[in-house]
Write a structure and sequence with these properties.
The protein is of the alpha+beta class and 215 residues long. The protein contains 9 helices and 5 strands. The protein folds into 2 domains: 2-119, Alpha-Beta Plaits; 138-208, no CATH class. The N and C termini lie far apart (43 Å).
């Protein structure tokens, strides 16, 4: 899924960042896929994702898991974000055993995903999709540290100005980093935002910002 491919960061930052998507296929298994997708979500939830949701209902930081499950219909695409490769391995082992009946896509660093697949007994990656980067007036983009936060929401629902305000609030002692990261996760309806990685990146962003203490 293309909206999970544009995450910014180096290898160390991205190697524990995975988005697992469950996706029925129109004309193949969309009809009658709702219970299969619900089963897929329940399996993922059991393995402790840092985030989970779907683009129409929301994620576990702005609604409940019960609401997400209840809102699944035929054709619903769901996303589960993990911050730990060991969880991905155990998840893939269970998905291999239980076969939920919909396509499963893992977005992450290619060689790390391949290692996880081998450990789960799944063999080589079936197919790959790459981001070709950002084209156009890239000088108008926010700074790279901020982009690392924004691009964890593939539909661009986290505003760069919001991040700037959060940085100012944290530096002035008005709120915590954790509360800021949760708010960013709430903006990302699909559930692609990795809060564990977000906290680390936010620390880096803070170190690059100067705030006038008089305001």
């Amino acid at each position: 899924m293309t909206h999970s491919l544009h995450r910014r960061g180096d290898y160390e930052s991205l190697k524990e960042d995975f988005v697992v998507l469950g996706c029925p296929a129109t004309g193949v298994n969309k009809v009658g896929s709702a219970p299969k997708t619900q089963n897929f979500l329940s399996i993922c939830y059991k393995h402790g994702p840092i985030n989970l949701g779907d683009m129409k209902t929301g994620n576990i930081y702005n609604t409940t898991m019960d609401d997400i499950l209840a809102s699944v219909t035929d054709g619903t695409i769901v996303q589960c974000t993990f911050d730990n490769r060991d969880k991905i391995v155990t998840l893939m082992k269970e998905l291999k055993e239980r076969r939920p009946g919909i396509s499963v896509i893992i977005s992450g660093v290619t060689d790390v995903v391949q290692q996880c697949m081998h450990e789960a007994g799944l063999g080589p990656i079936h197919s790959l999709e790459y981001s070709l980067g950002t084209w156009g007036k890239t000088e108008r983009l926010p700074g790279y540290a901020v982009l690392k936060l924004l691009t964890m929401c593939g539909h661009a629902m986290i505003a760069s100005d919001l991040v700037g305000k959060m940085v100012r609030d944290v530096k002035r002692g008005r709120r915590t980093i954790k509360s800021c990261v949760v708010e960013m996760a709430q903006c990302c309806t699909c559930g692609n935002f990795n809060l564990t990685r977000g906290e680390k990146i936010f620390q880096d962003v803070i170190s690059t910002y100067m705030v006038n203490s008089l305001y």
